[in-house]
Amino acid sequence: MVFVRFSSLIKIFTCIETGIIAIDCGFNWFIFFKYLMREYGNVVIEIAKISQGGRLILTKLENILEQILEKLQDSLTHEQLSELESTMVIAFHGIEVQEEHTQLVTSERTWEKILRMYCAAKRVENCSERTIKGYSRCIIQFFTQINKKINNITTNDIRYYLAFFQETHHTSIVYLDNIRRYLNSFFTWAADEGYIQSNPMRKLKKMRVPTKLKKTFSAAEMEELRCSANSQRDIAIMEFLYCTATRIGEAVSVNRSDIDWQRKELIVYGEKGKKERTVYLTDRCIYHLKKYLDERKDTNEALFVSSKSPHKRLGVQAIQSMLAALGKKTNIHVHAHKFRRTLLTDAGKRGMPLQEIQVYAGHAKPDTTMQYVMVQQERVKSNFMKNIA
Asked: Lesser CB count within 10 Å: N end or C end of the chain?
């Protein structure tokens, strides 16, 4: 049974253009469900009674939401459906569901303990600490916001959290789907291991993420970044990120002794799956690296260190901050991963086979490589006009 406070007000998306939904803010729950009964006879809504305490008792809430969206999918656009679902999920959150069920022996465990077990399992799977921290941070934020026992988490709680997170943080669909993936991984593992009775993520599907062509650096932008850098170290970092196509977490782990200067190569230990791969250095990169290393007076084994004493190994945050400041200075959108994408795109443009680019990037699947190897629209047009027109 589902209990809804009679005094609660609803905020339902108004589709003015279609006239399908026309409920303004300020209607109470009873009026809203009377409206649904009148407009959508096929939606099963069981109104049991209105108690003296002013509470409306309903059942099958999630089925109701699904049927509403299903009935309107031919009448509304994808964007309107998404906004309607988000608004309904937020409006319905807080409804108390009372069910009789046999609790698992493990139900006494808190979500914090289960999270520690999950992180331990991820370490056994050879996930990087950075990845595990990302999972952990996401799950902690979820339980802090929802504030319920893990066995009481419902699909509607997760829908509410995703909708609430997007509304309050104004995140992209890509970022929001990453949160969904993290939660799905955790709850699926917890269900498989028997820590929870059922997986609340089972009904949530992957979000439809619009495909966008992510930009790369042009040759002119790369040159401007070099000229505007504050130090030889910063130039060396950018050249290294570009020609090795390393992830930033991989780059900060490199030591000076890792580089084979004669063969112009080094072995990188990947963040994802910790697989090692060989990357190569261009003459330009070697020139800037050696010029930077010749300036250094410290004995730290790290390839990149802080400018000031005691010259500690540079971390991910330090490089990100340096690049962000340089981007602000040059008015160029700069981040570490963009150097990786630029190199992989340049390799594709110059005829390097996709399979070889995949190996160089350290991707397990060619589909992942295809997301980085950007096809230039001008080249598509040129080849079309040459071969088709």
From this structure: C
